[in-house]
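Continued from yesterday's entry.
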Amino acid sequence: METHKQLGIGLFGFGVVGEGLYKVLQQTPSLSARLKKVCIRNPEKQRNAPAELFTTDRSVLLNDPEINVIVEVIDDANAAFAIITEALKNGKDVVSASKKMIAEHLDELLALQQQTGRSLLYEAAACASIPVIRNLEEYYDNDLLHSIRAIVNGSTNFILTKMFEEGLDFRQALLLAQQLGFAESNPSLDVEGYDAVNKWTFLLTHAYGITASPENILFNGIQNIHAGDAAVALARHQQIKLVAQAQKLQNGQVAAFVLPQFVKQDDHLSFVKNEYNGVVIESGFADKQFFYGKGAGSLPTASAVLSDIAALRYQYKYEYKKLYHHQPHTLSEEVYLRVYVSFEDWKYIPREKFEWIEEWHAQEERKYLVGVIGFRELKDQTWWKDNNTSLILAPDPVIETVEIRKLKKKSLELAGLAL
């Protein structure tokens, strides 16, 4: 009895990842997967593959009965969604690397998979060479998954590494990242946190059954981090990383965000340098597990696409167990965060919004404070990213409401004793 099917592949896009996949497929004949056709936008461009492989007509791929897998690695989210929709409706399985498209259309993509019974796999859309989606999907029961913390954007991690290890300021590090191809000529999607939060939306689905659009998740990037912030971190024997975090609370809900964070020397994420990604998963019985690998680049991303293609030979599909077979978790805003805020003038900082302030340093040209503030205040307001203000989470930043009450009660008791 045959346990796997022969794959005829139609590929959309022949940029860095598409060409990487072409090379990888040539080196893995055992996969029994044949690349039949590649759809491209610009037929004039020189490519390292036979001319007869290419077409500009997407219907050639979508209507070919011998093509049973569509692989989509283009950078236009709307076009990608249209391609995937038609492919699934035409009875084809799909592999995608388009995190923005998946984040923006997750509910529709879930419905399409149920409606058509076809498989949509997208391991390459988050953390490239690290099989994080498959692990979250298969190995962790959502009731036992305590937390997941990750560095999911290689560009910002490269910039922060250079700021810490070579003393570059943000602009110098960004320029170097662009010169080496780790950041786009328009780097805002990376440095302002949009790329990371897009990935976090569907990782939350596989981790906790949460379906949330990017605008419903608290996030920021590294665009406001100053050399002075790095100096403070170094003085404390810490680093700054852009960390995506989801943590289960005592009430069963989940606090999730993507923000710059101080990371201690013994934190697994402190070992994640340059364009690498890292994921730390903490569960009830397995304690902490650390996944590490290249988060970008032609061949690492192509390897994740190849893994999904190989899985389709055995009719693999995401079951979305945490969403359909468990009680899905919900996001909570009823938590508090311990934060570091550096700024130029006190007038920009609403000190009355803090539950309390633990430190303040006003001598330097840039002032800073460390305090505890409500999650919802950050979600609803923008003062903490305006006027050249920099907000960075403390290590272990989440404080639950019950803890806040205990701490307030204790401080009142101490104040009474002092009187």
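--- second protein ---
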Amino acid sequence: LAARIDGLREAFVMALVSMNAHRLRSVLTMLGIIIGIASVVCMVALGQGSRQRVLANISGLGTNTLEIFPGTSFGDVRSGKIKTLVVGDARALEAEAYAAAVTPTVSTSSTARYRSIEASVMVNGVGDRYFAVKGTKLREGRFFDADSVRRLTQDVVIDENTAERLFPGGAGAIGQVILIGSVPCRIVGVAARQQSGFGSSQNLSVFLPYTTVQARFLGDASLRSITVRVSDDVASEVALAAVTQLLLQRHGRKDFFILNTDDIRQTLTQTTETLTLLIASIAVISLVVGGIGVMNIMLVSVVERTGEIGVRLAVGGRRRDILQQFLIEAVLISLFGGVIGVVTALAIGVAFNALSPSFSLIYSPASIVLAFVFSMLIGLVFGYLPARSAARLDPVAALAR
């Protein structure tokens, strides 16, 4: 065992000496590995960053929610005539164990006025749990509560876009009274800007208790939709089936449809992961090309060092020692290339994240470890043929050449 360890140590030293003697050739050989490893690590980081961005955008819409609408689907021309979706449905759903929060919603469009400024706004009548369901944050002020819903108060929460439109120059909005249509409403809060889809929504929206909108704007007790936030410990598919069954029992027929936002999240996540895998697979081609480069240079090295190999074999060197030396040299070249490739990828990530604060490359320790493993495997796989070729040289023919 000691003799074998000494042999490996000697082969390692000789490999380092050979690489140092041919520095330019070694660097050029590493170049393909460096590019390949850096590409794979960066592509995986890009995929992780894309996945996190998608999840963040979906979170801005309210994750793991079920949106219940009247009709058979979006665009159903008969949905406006269906009045069976009512507050009683929302209260029945709220009593179920799988529902973390439930909010009825109604909506209409109107004109908001403050002094001489007016703007078209979407008037959203919502329950007091709406903001928790949607993950809405406050910029200032407060949200209205259950007592406001019960008493049909004219407290309104406006979004940032509406605040900027009606109160230019940063004038304070909290406590001001605005006219929405012909209804005076007091502003109690300004909601922070929230993501909608894949970008910030530019619509002007105001939020009132749904009871107020039903009584003072619509004169109709039916709902536009009901939003159910599913408990974290309940699968969205289970909750979807339970909601469908409950509403079928209450309505006697299926005059509603349900949008599962968790399905959207899963679909987008799977699509992102598939694209990441595709791009990373393309980047792996760079590694294969780098490995072929290692093999070619090592074959050239065998030809150049034929005399050295012949002398070693003639004085009693074993073929296993020759194989070890060339194989270790190939692995070292690939390993050093892998280290430089990872460092290069991290440097690219730092520069990219500094230039693009809205989107970040997210590096995975697993991808970095895999990069090292792949670089060593490339050295073993593509270095074996040249090493085997060197070990099988005939000593007499090698000396003669």
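The longest helix spans residues 261-304. The two ends are 35 Å apart (CA to CA). Will compare against the first tomorrow.
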